[in-house]
């Protein structure tokens, strides 16, 4: 069972590697940001699978932290592309 | 034993959705369609993996923690999707055309 | 080859590739995004090395604080980096030499020893913490931690000192604004309460399992920054007395606990009976102070007078 979960973690890791390609080729900043976001979700999945594989419950806390902070990069990103670096993209509409 | 089989099945479903999300991110033609692939598919994949982990959980607190992990991720994805889509929209109109 | 080794090999290659991409990317934004990914992969790497305490910090710093700092710096930077740099032969040769030397040393290392682990484990029962990392950080090597906290405080003083004279003591960062009732505003309301709960949980669990003051503090700092980015709360006035006490409380209490030990024997020694109480008290105070310090470091010098 352990090696099954490890194998699953490996497959998610390969997915993460593939989405890193999207970060590299872009073309727009939003594309790169989405690539980073997918890596974040993938990282949470990898950590859950690793906590199962080793029966280490403490690893689940790391996954919890990553999940809690998952949208931080996205929020910082939309701030950085808004005028003055302090706005909200919904305001202009 | 039954829990192990259930975990295997749900993890496999989860991996399928992760794969679909990645393929979508790489193959879809523009920002807003890629956003679909990303924010829906991989969160569904994570949901299945969370269910698989819940089958293996030692106690009910672990199940709550797993549920919290999934809910945080879904909230983050929903927020990120909305904000990034808006940001990309204004970027399309003003500066860079999408490939 | 078993699956576990395959996972580690792929992870190492991916870390190297992403690090290379982050450094060499022409588009600065791509570099920043790859650097965020690099932090995530390192988190997984620390977990693989069984260093869950470090993984917690890396997760909070990499996913939370670093992204805010780097993305916040982007609007003030040129879109393209000046790569490819002109490579200077001498620099290249010396880098390669240092790299080769390091490889030689690492390969030539003797069989891994257990280091100080037996010594730590022998005294763990008297330390007041059953998580070895917390025992080392707050009891056996309390000096190190105290000095680290002092460094953070000095860094903050340094950042504040770079405020313009007429803005001294004012609020840091740009004035944030959001659409009232919008997604960003609601997200900023939703997440901080959970962050506070998880922060307290991490301090509490730190005495028996991975977790502790630094891990909790980075989470609290991150959610405070989120609340400010969502314009739920304004950045504090840097001249505020309450804020300064908040930043200084942890180090002060740590020194006080150390002096308390002086009565018993030596600076920063705890009696086995009271050690747990002392460690938890110092950790709680440190958590609050480090959280405030980290967030204020990210916010930077004062930008608005008053």
From TrEMBL, chain A:
<keyword id="KW-0813">Transport</keyword>
<dbReference type="InterPro" id="IPR007208">
    <property type="entry name" value="MrpF/PhaF-like"/>
</dbReference>
<keyword id="KW-0812">Transmembrane</keyword>
<keyword id="KW-1003">Cell membrane</keyword>
<keyword id="KW-0614">Plasmid</keyword>
<dbReference type="GO" id="GO:0005886">
    <property type="term" value="C:plasma membrane"/>
</dbReference>
<comment type="similarity">
    <text>Belongs to the CPA3 antiporters (TC 2.A.63) subunit F family.</text>
</comment>
<keyword id="KW-0472">Membrane</keyword>
<dbReference type="Pfam" id="PF04066">
    <property type="entry name" value="MrpF_PhaF"/>
</dbReference>
<feature type="transmembrane region" description="Helical">
    <location>
        <begin position="59"/>
        <end position="78"/>
    </location>
</feature>
<keyword id="KW-1133">Transmembrane helix</keyword>
<protein>
    <recommendedName>
        <fullName>Multiple resistance and pH regulation protein F</fullName>
    </recommendedName>
</protein>
<dbReference type="GO" id="GO:0015385">
    <property type="term" value="F:sodium:proton antiporter activity"/>
</dbReference>
<feature type="transmembrane region" description="Helical">
    <location>
        <begin position="35"/>
        <end position="52"/>
    </location>
</feature>
TrEMBL record, chain B:
<keyword id="KW-1133">Transmembrane helix</keyword>
<keyword id="KW-0812">Transmembrane</keyword>
<keyword id="KW-0472">Membrane</keyword>
<dbReference type="InterPro" id="IPR005133">
    <property type="entry name" value="PhaG_MnhG_YufB"/>
</dbReference>
<feature type="transmembrane region" description="Helical">
    <location>
        <begin position="6"/>
        <end position="26"/>
    </location>
</feature>
<dbReference type="Pfam" id="PF03334">
    <property type="entry name" value="PhaG_MnhG_YufB"/>
</dbReference>
<protein>
    <submittedName>
        <fullName>Na(+) H(+) antiporter subunit G</fullName>
    </submittedName>
</protein>
<feature type="transmembrane region" description="Helical">
    <location>
        <begin position="46"/>
        <end position="64"/>
    </location>
</feature>
<feature type="transmembrane region" description="Helical">
    <location>
        <begin position="70"/>
        <end position="89"/>
    </location>
</feature>
<dbReference type="GO" id="GO:0015385">
    <property type="term" value="F:sodium:proton antiporter activity"/>
</dbReference>
<keyword id="KW-0614">Plasmid</keyword>
TrEMBL record, chain C:
<keyword id="KW-1003">Cell membrane</keyword>
<dbReference type="InterPro" id="IPR050622">
    <property type="entry name" value="CPA3_antiporter_subunitB"/>
</dbReference>
<dbReference type="InterPro" id="IPR007182">
    <property type="entry name" value="MnhB"/>
</dbReference>
<dbReference type="Pfam" id="PF04039">
    <property type="entry name" value="MnhB"/>
</dbReference>
<keyword id="KW-0472">Membrane</keyword>
<protein>
    <recommendedName>
        <fullName>DUF4040 domain-containing protein</fullName>
    </recommendedName>
</protein>
<feature type="transmembrane region" description="Helical">
    <location>
        <begin position="245"/>
        <end position="263"/>
    </location>
</feature>
<feature type="transmembrane region" description="Helical">
    <location>
        <begin position="145"/>
        <end position="162"/>
    </location>
</feature>
<keyword id="KW-0812">Transmembrane</keyword>
<feature type="transmembrane region" description="Helical">
    <location>
        <begin position="183"/>
        <end position="206"/>
    </location>
</feature>
<feature type="transmembrane region" description="Helical">
    <location>
        <begin position="87"/>
        <end position="107"/>
    </location>
</feature>
<keyword id="KW-0614">Plasmid</keyword>
<dbReference type="InterPro" id="IPR025383">
    <property type="entry name" value="MrpA_C/MbhD"/>
</dbReference>
<dbReference type="GO" id="GO:0005886">
    <property type="term" value="C:plasma membrane"/>
</dbReference>
<dbReference type="Pfam" id="PF13244">
    <property type="entry name" value="MbhD"/>
</dbReference>
